[in-house]
Amino acid sequence: MRRWNGWGDDATGFPLPEGADAFLSRVAGPSEPPADAALADVVAAVEAGPPSRLPAHPLVSTDAEDRLRHARGQSLPDWVALRGGRVGRVPDGVARPADDADVRDLLRLAGSLGARVVPYGGGTSVLGQLDAPDGDAPWLSVDLGRMAGLARWDPTSGLATFGPGTAGPDVESSLAAVGRTLGHFPQSFELSTVGGWVATRSVGQQSIGYGRIDERFAGGTVEAPAGRLLLPPHPASAAGPDIRQLVLGSEGRLGIVTEAILRTSPLPEVERFGAVFFADWERGVEAVRELAGAELPLSMIRLSTPAETETNLALAGHARTMAALRAYLRVRGAGTGRAMAIVGVAGDRDVASVAAGVAFGILGRHGGIRVPRVGAEWRKNRFRTAYLRNALWDAGYAVDTLETAADWSAVPALLAGLAPAIRRTLAPVGERVHAFAHLSHVYPSGSSVYVTYVFRLASDPDETLRRWRTIKDAASRTVVDLGGTISHQHGVGRDHRAWLPAEKGALGIAAIEAVAAAFDPDGIMAPGVLVAGPERPAREATDA
Ligand SMILES: Cc1cc2nc3c(=O)[nH]c(=O)nc-3n(C[C@H](O)[C@H](O)[C@H](O)COP(=O)(O)OP(=O)(O)OC[C@H]3O[C@@H](n4cnc5c(N)ncnc54)[C@H](O)[C@@H]3O)c2cc1C
Question: Quick check: pTM over 0.85?
């Protein structure tokens, strides 16, 4: 069963390894397990709270637990709200359409009631995109879970049409049956969906090989309050501006993606990941920059800072193996300042083998020390590590991430500025923040920078939220000041909205608002996500 207040399935765990307690105490201070609210109590509070303002409808559930389970996503404020039992508003109802006609009916219903609609895919949003819409109009969460699966397969063009609610494992198993892959593997792969990927411009771990979802989304259908948008899957087009690009990253503001036509690749004959350690960060960066510039057919390049490398080794378990690895690396000249790179290849056996040979040759010339088995271990845990969030919370620690991207010329300043700025934030309240980073998606002209930070939970959830907000504000300001984008992959939602104008400019924001108004003239779609919503009073709810 899916956890209602944490990550993933409650039958799956990723306990903290032996020694993790001591490590966390050292870097963030000793902590206590929090006293979390129980599901039954929070459901009872929803039942005792304001009743649904929606009329009875065959597609809409007003069950209290259903409403609770669609009230939040996976951002840290969402966790604090759920774990602390302070959820605030919940949707008035959860709709589960089966096809486009149902979606159109639901949009009409919402329009007639003045209700607000929030599309809900896998619920893995980390930026408040699924939270209560601005204003206090009735809120309809539209769960796309029934519109899932491979609808059409065109073997001649390699195009696969999926329902928006198809989650990662189902996408890959449907495609594997016809010898193909999408190659889109965000860490949230287990739960996130095709519609969510398109709506947030998601990026998978192997994006340098398979491309971001931007490149994989060839076309499809969007049902909007103003009508239906059909996006033909042309391989390329010079027919004016590309409307697909408006749908990508639209975060539910324009309408509901009801079908996505995706470009697929042959299933790789081989897929391998290898690890290389550098004596210091500077050598590692030089190496991966040259590697990215060589434009080899690799599937992944990532490089961890020394702080992240040490954290990964400390939380990897296998204490004896890790001690042996550290000793070996020390002898080879990579002591405490070491930085770990993971490089992936996928595809035809011969091409992958040549690409890996050239890639590890480049890294070796920069002093990279190749270590066997670490890459395979990374692959084994690539989606399981998301479960560490549960274990850290249970031990009394909040963990959150943020990500940006910049040109290579701006990357050093971002790296030098971001984690230290985050570490300083809670000093005034006597708390420490453990922050570390990696270059996660490396491009010829620049790189994304992905930061993880850990801090102690306070006994009062509001204080935990204040700590988070202090960190988030300082980090977002640093990103903007140092020339990074406010998001490389997670999107904007509510948590980044205030920082978007710095990147898009007044004209850019006006253009986004105008597009939203064209698709959704009455402003019923997720007001407050991405850009401020037009505030209109709710109409009286009447029987549909
Ligand atoms: C542990 C963890 C790891 C993550 N790793 C990654 C990662 O590696 N890469 C990455 O890019 N992101 C990652 N994310 C963020 C998140 O998984 C992505 O943003 C993902 O694309 C969201 O998909 P979803 O189906 O869960 O959408 P939801 O969370 O349900 O919705 C996200 C947004 O999309 C809208 N939406 C959903 N479906 C539709 C639809 N059919 N039509 C219109 N709008 C829709 C929603 O209204 C909302 O605005 C991670 C999140 C977590 C919690």
Answer: yes
